[in-house]
Amino acid sequence: MNIHTPAANLTAAAKPSRREAEDAVRTLLRWAGENPDREGLLDTPARVVRSYEEFFAGYEEDPVALLTRTFEEIEGYDEMVVLRDIRIESHCEHHMVPIIGRAHVAYLPGNRAVGISKLARVVDAYARRFQIQEKLTAQIANTIAEVLQPRGVAVVIEAGHQCMSTRGVHKPGSSMVTSRMLGAFRDDPSTRREFLAMISPRSCQSVEA
To answer: Residue 183: beta bridge partners?
Structure first.
């Protein structure tokens, strides 16, 4: 599957209607032991469907298109560009519960640079889908590398998973750290250390370990 295109790849005929989606929520409410027809729950199916439109808006985004508008007038700037502490709001594809954390993204410009807001939007485009953190980290880094053709790309994500904190092993406060280093960030230890020094000390320690 091409990682850049909306992952659902559903035709208009295959995608359930809003009414079908709301009926599915009513089914889940009944399965949980509730009565979806009681006053407090009458509007819940519609609210859930609207929230899903927001949670999973990334399926309608093309991350490649977000990065295609670049600029070349960078006055020879060749040091790394780092955007730290980008909030991540995603959902675990195994249990459909939230993944909340932050991402740090860096690249070493080649001949082109991109507005920093586009980096944050690429993170959101992939995060607002059903995900696992490892894949999310790789998708962000790979897309920036393929589109911008920089000398290197680095992505570190640190996030809490409610599939661990609210169910299963019940370990609140735990976090998962993933990283993807490409180009100079993978090949040059000094470049990697400089990047890790510029982001959260806690993330640095976790990745270096």
So the answer is: 152
pTM of the complete model: 0.86
105 φ/ψ sector (left φ>0, alpha ψ -120 to 50, else beta): beta
Maximum Cα–Cα distance across the chain = 65
Residues of the chain whose pLDDT is less than 50? 1-8, 203-204, 207-209
| Residues 6+ positions from 160 with CB-CB distance below 8 Å | 99, 100, 101, 173, 174, 175, 176
Q: Is 87 left (phi over 0), alpha (psi -120 to 50) or beta?
A: beta
Point out the residues that are catalytic: 92-95, 133, 161, 163
Summarised one tens digit per residue, pLDDT across range 120-178 is 999 999 999 999 999 999 999 999 999 999 999 999 999 998 888 887 888 888 889 99
- Nearest CA to 163 out of 193, 189, 132, 191 is that of 132
Tell me which residue of 90, 27, 97 sits closest to 54, measured CA to CA: 90
- Asked whether the CA dihedral 7, 12, 16, 21 is positive or negative, the reply is positive
Task: Find out whether 196 and 207 touch, Cβ atoms under 8 Å.
Answer: yes
User: CB–CB of 105/144 below 8 Å?
Assistant: yes
Instruction: Report the distance separating Cα 69 and Cα 19, nearest Å.
Output: 38
